[in-house]
Amino acid sequence: MTSETLFKPSESLRNVRYEIRGKLARRAQELSRVGYEIISLNIGNPALFGFRTPETMRLAMIENFPESEGYCNQKGIFPAREAVVMQQQARGVHGVSAEEVFIGNGVSELIDLNLRALLNDGDEVLVPSPDYPLWTAAVNLNRGRAVHYPCRPENGFVPDPADIAALVTPRTRAIVVINPNNPTGAVYPRAVLEAIASLAESRGLVVFSDEIYDQITYDGAVFVPMATLVHDTICITMSGLSKVYRACGYRVGWAVVSGKLRLAQDFIGGLELLASLRLCSNVPGQWAVQTALGGYQSIRELVVPGGRLYESRKVIVESTAANPAFTLRQPQGAMYAFVGVDTSLLPDFDDQQFALDLLEQKHVLVAPGVSFNVPYRNHFRITNLPDAATLRVVFQRIDELLAESAR
C-alpha cells in the first residue's frame, strides 16, 4: 500500500496576494463559459477594449524577426537600451548609458529581479498603500518585509513625506514610488517627490520609481521623472510598452539605474547575474522599443478632450458625482479610478462582497479596494479603458445594485 503525500504550496506564498486575477476573476471565467457576457474592468488590458499597438511598432518587429531567433545579451538588445537612454536624457536624467539599462519581460519581471538582487532576510521596503499589489508580493517573495506608507483619500491619495520618514528603520532598504499611480490615478507634485528623494538620499535608501503610466496624464497634470530628482543615492526607474503603447502582450519593460552609480556597481553586477540566469527577455518585442520611444506619441491623442481615455474618464467622474453614495478623487493620470463609498449612507458596504454581487448579479467585474493593500473596505478600482457608452452601462448596473441592496 502506497502512502499519499499532500502537496502544499511554499510557505513563502503565505503573505502573497494578487486578487486582481484571483477568485473573482476565476468566477468571471466560469460565468463566461456558460454564456454570460462579462464586462471585465479588473485589469488594465488595452487590447481587451479594442486598443491597438501602433502599426509602426508591429512593423519593426516583423522586419527584425529574422534577428530574433537566438538569445540576445542578458540586458537586452542594444538599440532598445540605447533608445531608453535617449528618452532618459531628453527628460533631464544624466550619466546613464546602455550599461545601466535592463530590458525585461515586462516591468513585472524586473520588479522581481531588482528586489531579489537587493534584499536580504528581513529587509524592509516602504510601499505605498494603496499599491499595485505586485510590489508587496515581490517584496515578501524575496525575503523582505513590505511596510506600507499611507496615501490617504482625504489627501488626494498623495503621500505625506513625513509619514514615510516615520516608518524608516535601520532595516529599511528602499522606497517604492508609483507615479502616475495605480490604482488611484494620483500624479504626485514635484515638492512631494523632492521630499521623498531627499529622505532617500539622507538615509541611503534605493528609490524604485514605477513610471509605467508616465505619459498618461489629464487636464494639465505634470509628470515629474523621479530620476531627475535623485542624485546622491540610487534611483531605479521602471517603465515599458504595456500601457502607453498598448502592447501588454509584447512583455517588454525596462529598468534604468541612475544616480550615484559608483555606489551601485555590485548591485548592478548582481542584477546582471540574475538577468543572465534567465538568459534573456523576449527578443521580438524588444525591436519595437526604438520605434515606440522615437516615433509619434499617439497616446497624446487619447488623453486630451475628445480622446477616448479622456472621455471615458469623464463618464466615471460624472457618474460618481451623480450618486451621493460615491466619493472620488478625480484621477489625474493612469487608466483607473479608485472609487470610494460613503459608509454613512451604506453602512453595510463591504468591497469584496460588493464586487462579488456585482459580478454575479450584474455581470461586471471590478477589483475590490482591499486588493491594493489598504486597511479600509469601502473602495473599488475601475478602469477607464472601455468606451464611454460601456461605462455608462456599467454605472447604471452599479447604481441598480446599490439601490437594491439598500432596500
Detailed description of the structure:
The protein contains 13 helices and 13 strands. The protein is of the alpha/beta class and 407 residues long. It has two domains: 11-52 and 301-405, Aspartate Aminotransferase, domain 1 (Alpha-Beta Complex), CATH 3.90.1150; 55-294, Type I PLP-dependent aspartate aminotransferase-like (Major domain) (Aspartate Aminotransferase, domain 2). It has a seven-stranded mixed beta sheet with strand order 2-8-7-6-5-3-4, with helices on both faces. Strands 9-10-13-12 form a four-stranded antiparallel beta sheet. The relative contact order is 0.17.
Subunit arrangement of the protein: single chain
- List the uncertain runs: none
Domain module count? 2
Percent of residues in beta strands:
5-15%
- With strands numbered from the N-terminus, the spatial order across the biggest sheet is 2-8-7-6-5-3-4
Q: Helix amount, in percent?
A: 25-40%
Order of helices and strands: HEHHEHEHEHEHEEEHHHHEEHEEEH
CATH third-level topology of the largest domain: Aspartate Aminotransferase, domain 2
Reading off the top of the CATH hierarchy, the class of the largest domain is best stated as Alpha Beta
Shape: globular
Termini gap: 59 Å
CATH H-level name of the largest domain... which superfamily?
Answer: Type I PLP-dependent aspartate aminotransferase-like (Major domain)
Pairing-aware structural class of the strands and helices?
Answer: alpha/beta
Evaluate the radius of gyration. 21 Å
Number of strands: 13
Count up the helices.
13
Per CATH, which architecture of the largest domain?
3-Layer(aba) Sandwich
**Major sheet description:** 7 strands, mixed
